[in-house]
Amino acid sequence: MQTLIIYDNEGYIISQMSGDVREPVGIPFIWVEVPEGKRIVSVNPETGTPVYEDLPRSETEILKEQIDALNIAMAQMLGM
Hints:
24% of the residues lie in helices and 38% in strands. It has one helix at 59-77; strands spanning 2-7, 13-18, 29-33, 38-44, 49-54. The strands form two sheets. Strands 2-1-3 form a three-stranded antiparallel sheet, with no helix packed on it.
């Protein structure tokens, strides 16, 4: 889904909106498609390109990885 990003002259994001929204007049903005697993932290004011960072892993994802590692360790201990 396209997201409207309104930012200031330093690249600080003032607002993020999706859906049927009116484009602003007289202030900088861009439309972007945010990749999965990323979030926009600012906009490069010289180029008008978004600056992304990875989303932190959720607690659920961390726990699933730990469970998988424990299951593998148990299977190795039992000679499976």
